[in-house]
C-alpha cells in the first residue's frame, strides 16, 4: 500500500508540473499532457524510484544514491516528454524548451520525492553493531 500511495503522489506531482509548464506556459493540450504525465510516472517510478534509487541508496550514501536517481529521472523525463510531445502535440508547442524546463523542475521534485521514499516507503536500513566486551 505504501508503494501505491507513493505512486499516486508522484503522479500528482508530475501532472501538476507538466500541466503548469506544458499546458499553462507552452499551450499544450490538457489531455495530451495528462497522458504524458501518466506514461512518465509509470516509467520513472519503476526505473528511477524502485530500481535505481533503492539499489544506489543501499550501495552508496543516501546523497549519492539520490543524486544518481534524480539525474536519471530528469534524463528519462526529458526523453519521454520530448518524444511523446513531438508525436502528440501540435507544431505550435516548443517541445524542446518545454521538455528541458519540465525535466529541470521535475528533477527538483524528484530530489524531494526520494527523501519521502527513503523515510516513508522503503524499509529502514538494517544497521548491525558488532560490539564485543571481552
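Q: What amino acid sequence fits the structure above?
A:
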Amino acid at each position: 500500500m505504501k508503494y501505491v500511495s507513493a505512486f499516486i503522489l508522484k503522479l500528482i506531482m508530475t501532472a501538476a508540473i507538466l500541466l503548469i509548464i506544458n499546458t499553462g506556459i507552452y499551450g499544450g493540450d490538457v489531455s495530451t499532457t495528462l497522458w504524458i504525465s501518466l506514461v512518465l510516472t509509470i516509467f520513472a517510478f519503476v526505473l528511477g524510484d524502485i530500481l535505481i534509487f533503492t539499489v544506489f541508496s543501499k550501495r552508496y550514501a543516501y546523497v549519492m544514491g539520490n543524486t544518481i536517481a534524480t539525474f536519471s529521472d530528469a534524463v528519462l523525463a526529458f526523453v519521454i516528454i520530448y518524444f511523446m510531445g513531438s508525436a502528440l502535440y501540435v507544431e505550435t508547442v516548443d517541445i524542446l524548451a518545454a521538455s528541458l524546463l519540465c525535466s529541470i523542475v521535475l528533477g527538483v521534485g524528484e530530489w524531494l520525492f526520494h527523501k519521502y521514499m527513503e523515510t516513508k516507503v522503503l524499509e529502514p536500513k538494517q544497521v548491525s553493531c558488532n560490539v564485543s566486551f571481552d
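Q: And what stands out in the fold?
A: The CA atoms of residues 8 and 41 lie 9 Å apart.
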